[in-house]
C-alpha cells in the first residue's frame, strides 16, 4: 500500500472541484490543501455518520494532537496513487448526474455524512493508550509518538476498507433509472468507476495487511470485510440499497445489523491494534468490546437524533426505536408503518408516548458505560481520557 506524505485532496475530487465549489461554497484552496495549520478548519466534523457539533469538534482535535497525526484524510492518500489518476480525470463526466459516486467523493472532503474518519483515530488512540505489551523489548526508535508504525498502517487500512465499502455501495440499479438521474451511459460509466475504484482500494488494503506480516491480523480484517458484504444481504436493505424494515424483526436483529455494517470493522481493528503490540488475549478482548460498544452508541445516538429533533426526512425505517415498536406493538406498527403515505409526525408521537425513545436513550447510556468499562485496565493517560471523551461526546450528540 502506497503511503504519501502530503495531504492534497485526491485527484478524484479535484477533477470535479468546480461543481463541488458550486454546491458547497468551499474555496479551491480549502479543497486542495490541508496543512498542520489549517486542517482543523477544513476537515469534516462527523462521527461515523453524524453532523458537526462543536463539542465533537474539540474532542477530535484534542485526540488528533495526542496521536500526533491528523487522521481526517487517512484513506484519501491512497487515492493519490497513479493507478487511480485516469479514473479521477473521468469524474467530470458525472457532474450534473445523480450518481452517488460524485456525492461520496465530495462527502470525503466536506462535512458530509461519512466525512470524518474516526475509525483510524480510535485505533491510534487505543494503540497509544495501551503502549507495548509488558515485557516487550522495544526502543524509542521503534515507536513514533508512542505508536508502532504497524499500528499506524492498520489505522489507514481500516479507513481504506471503510471508504471502499462506501464507494461500492454507490453502484446504482440501472433498471430503475429516471430521466432526471442523468444519461444512462454516464450512469453506467459511474458504476464501472465505483466498482473498479472500490476494488482498487480493497486491493491496496490487502497489500497493506500482507506487509504487516501478521496472519491473525489479516484474518481479523478479512472477517470485517466479509461482515460488511453480508450487511447488504440481511433484509434491512431493498434492491436499491435503501433501508427497509423486514416483516418480522427484533432488536436482536438490529444489533446484528449494526455489528455487520459498522461494529465489526471497528471492533476487529481495535483488537488487531492490540495484537500488533503483542498484548494479551484479555487486552485484545477489552479493545474489541470498546470498539463494538462504541459502534452501538453511535448508531443509537444517530437514530435518536433524527427523532428527537423532528428531522423527519432523516428518520430511517430501520431506526432502533421503530424496530422496537414493531417488536413490542406489532399491531400499532402495522397501522403506522404500512400506510400509502407515511405520517412521520404521527410515528414520532407514538415512539415518544410509548416510552421507546426513553428506552433507547437508556440503552445508549448502557452501551456507553460498557465501552468506557472496557478501558479500565489501561493506565491513566491523555489517550485514555480522549477515548472516554469520544464515547461521551457521541452519546450526547
TrEMBL record:
Alphabetical GO biological process terms: isoprenoid biosynthetic process; ubiquinone biosynthetic process
SUPFAM superfamilies the record matches: Terpenoid synthases
Record-level GO cellular component terms: mitochondrion; transferase complex
Claim: Chloroplast is one of the keywords in the record: no
A Pfam cross-reference name: polyprenyl_synt
Superkingdom, natural source: Eukaryota
A molecular function GO annotation: prenyltransferase activity
Keyword terms: Transferase
Entry keyword annotation includes Cell membrane: no
InterPro entries: Isoprenoid_synthase_dom_sf, Polyprenyl_synt
Family recorded in the similarity comment: Belongs to the FPP/GGPP synthase family.
UniProt name for this protein: Decaprenyl-diphosphate synthase subunit 2
